[in-house]
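Researcher: Re-running this chain for the archive, since the previous output was lost when a drive failed. Same request as before.
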Amino acid sequence: MTVIPEQLQAGTVEIINYGLAGYSESLSKQHELCTKRRLEQIPDTVLIVEHKPVITLGARRNANKVVLEKDELAGKGIDVFEIRRGGGTTAHNPGQLVFYPIVNLKELRLGISDYIRTLEQVGIELLACLGVAADRRKGYPGLWTGGKKIASVGVRISRSITHHGMAININNDLSIFDYIVPCGLEDVKMTSVLKETSKKHSMAEVKQKLTELIQEHLGKTVNTNLITGNKQQRLPSWLKRPLPAGEKFVHTQGVLNNLELETICVNANCPNRGQCWSRGTATVLILGNVCTRNCGFCSVATGKPEPPDPTEPARLAQMVRKMNLKYLVITSVDRDDLVDGGAGHFRDCVNTVRRMCPETKFEILVPDFRNCQNQAIEILKDALPFVFAHNVETVSSLYNTARRGGDYQLSLNLLKSAKTAYPEIPTKSSIMLGLGETDAEVEQVLKDLRKVGCERITIGQYLKPFKDCLDVTEYIPPDKFDFWKTWALEMGFCWVISSPFARSSYFAELETAK
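Model: Regenerated structure tokens:
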């Protein structure tokens, strides 16, 4: 084991080249370094290692798919470990470059999503030096080239200290991936620098270049910025938030992970996750985390979704019981592939939770049920009462760019149909500012919502959640949100939250938001 270099200046990261090691040994080293970093006995440190053949299973159990039994893998000299990092199944072997940052995100002033993007950026620049053009794929952590995956990311963060990290395929034998479904993604092909370029690189030289990139990206204090393409646009002061922390946050995170439940908090990179989870609330995302549409403002993955999981309603009920929730917000991706748009699954989730936790109140944030609005409204009658929410998201003129596949009038029709079918039920919507809308257009959206009987509204700042999403056109100051709140109340909305961080489910449990 060597340290590169031996002496480091203040503000840099200590790099430990751990050589070729068994997985158990390197995992123990990570835990040791995490404890020392938490106690401030060491600076930020990155462990660089090549692993002996091993398959690791992540925290997302439904993404852990192994083709062979454990004893069969042992016969091939491959160990199997269950660990508590994010993501699903992956594999390591010699010739694959793995690095594990043990860094304090609070001191770096990096949020979780920004940190993962930083790791990915290190990988992108390293691969570029090796002749491979790699990029991110919306909704799937890691790096891709030519439709094939070349690097995987899986991290764990405890009290602001990170461990686990990133694995990049350089010269390794890719046949080990034949024994797993990488990250639980069917039909994913893995590749390497060697396979893409037919050139075998010196691992010592690759590690040295990685060391330089780590120092560049993690070796100094980083301000929380909004990443826009290759530019960093500094966020205004009113849009900066402390990193998530605290016992309640950790408990919420643990319950969601253990029950393998998706949240819009994570999938949409919501800036309120730290605050909401620390209050013991979360907005669950049912019907999977793959959407049939590709809206320009959203970071949720697009593709062909899996069939609805019949165990999800029961797992949702367990979450409500363990977290002692009194108010539950349920949302979903768009499921244009389903005959009822997913309405039946919404109904089943509400009714299953209600049987186990009869005191819980509900809010459902539904898609537009594009091809089946009347059918969906009828199905959902069996799950009353609830707050019925559907977001128009933005002004009509921006639908072609921001909400491809959606239709402004169709969204208004859904809210009108819900109010007609459930006259005693509150209806709710949400819009984002900062996408290029005019004040006159915002005013028109509010008028249109009131015309269809919508009583509740949230108005918030659009923040770019992923590099491929639409850029922010304008940061709206807090006093302008106060203006729109006053305007909305005067127009007859009885429940209004209007602030830069307002989102559709933000403080949804409040009986009044005036």
